[in-house]
Amino acid sequence: xxxxxxxxxxxxxxxxxxxxxxxxxxxxxxxxxxxxxxxxxxxxxxxxxxxxxxxxxxxxxxxxxxxxxxxxxxxxxxxxxxxxxxxxxxxxxxxxxxxxxxxxxxxxxxxxxxxxxxxxxxxxxxxxxxxxxxxxxxxxxxxxxxxxxxxxxxxxxxxxxxxxxxxxxxxxxxxxxxxxxxxxxxxxxxxxxxxxxxxxxxxxxxxxxxxxxxxxxxxxxxxxxxxxxxxxxxxxxxxxxxxxxxxxxxxxxxxxxxxxxxxxxxxxxxxxxxxxxxxxxxxxxxxxxxxxxxxxxxxxxxxxxxxxxxxxxxxxxxxxxxxxxxxxxxxxxxxxxxxxxxxxxxxxxxxxxxxxxxxxxxxxxxxxxxxxxxxxxxxxxxxxxxxxxxxxxxxxxxxxxxxxxxxxxxxxxxxxxxxxxxxxxxxxxxxxxxxxxxxxxxxxxxxxxxxxxxxxxxxxxxxxxxxxxxxxxxxxxxxxxxxxxxxxxxxxxxxxxxxxxxxxxxxxxxxxxxxxxxxxxxxxxxxxxxxxxxxxxxxxxxxxxxxxxxxxxxxxx
Length: 557
Hints:
By secondary structure, this protein is an alpha/beta fold. The protein contains 18 helices and 15 strands.
């Protein structure tokens, strides 16, 4: 529900914070006091259009925010989660904010994050519905008509089944469309894939072949350097007659062995040199074996070089690394196989499309039957309510219009529209064509009273639903609003004492002026103050004792 509305530098408001409570809240005040300003500010937080003329004179920007308690509004919580706009600090609350600057620019925020006006409207319609002449009225939209009718008379489980059935069909249909589009280009694609695979097959690159070739190429390409280095080392180690490492090591060992028994440290030295002698002998043997068996083989080097060039060239052609060529071959072969068997897949998808359409149709027909049954029941109950609201000639009709069966809708086989006739013999017309705002508000009130037990909109605002009525009808309107306040939060702007007296909570708007400016204020009344305000509404500022007694009786009842 709406918890708080904070307004700063908007119209005649400098700074105002309004706390709202559950139940029915009446907003009253003299004409021109600023009741419309409160609703105008609230509408801005819900995405209404704005311009710089709403900014209080002498200030640079208007700042308005509405705080909602969302603990029990699952659909809005899901929407916030899907759009990553949850409040990290206060999970149960949601703040919608609007800032209008003196340059005419407007900025919107949800829980401190910048959003578009579309986002603001989408979320706002889940939180609050304003029933007035303003454009932010969901009852002027067909999707609201369908939602209200479905909530009134269609099983929720069946609606879920309808949505799932549609999604299953839609997912399969997209695959079918994509594959059908590909089929038109199959010939050219098969030719391209076949050519690419022929090149790769002719290459016949084996698993691990590339690494082996690169190692062998590196060795053969460095043949001269390798053999020269090994021969030079062999010469120094063993073959140099003037003094090689092996002979010098033998000489060192011979001298130390003579004196080793005399000192343990020299004995250790002998052991280390003897180990070195063994390792040197093994190294010399390895070098001789390498030098004797090494084959430079220029022809083999050329073959390897040619093979590597072919591999790298083909990899560059496909803009991949050479090591990825085997995976590319597998991928292209899989693509070619899919296309060559696409007719079979297409046939499967077409058969499945027919099955899924039939499944959707069966569920949608169940929904249609429940809608058809609910249509007359809802219309009858609303029409009975309109009689009590002083509209004896008003008649609501609910029109179910078939949609194209070739293009299933996630909402079923028909669209829903509320039509109303307000005069005898007059053809029923869409709600949006009703000229009188007061009539529209009372029709909305009648619909909401009947659907309140099933509606998901937690807060409803009625702007002067009592226009053009009085006496007993006004009392009925007040009773209906109070009854509606038992299942939803109701905020009602009214000029009728009979309506205001029914409210659980009462707020009064007043305007204070001086030579320089005008200021709008709003206060919540206590019980005694509420009686006086109702008395003022009955008899004016100079109300009599009789008016006061009448007001006390109305409030007490």
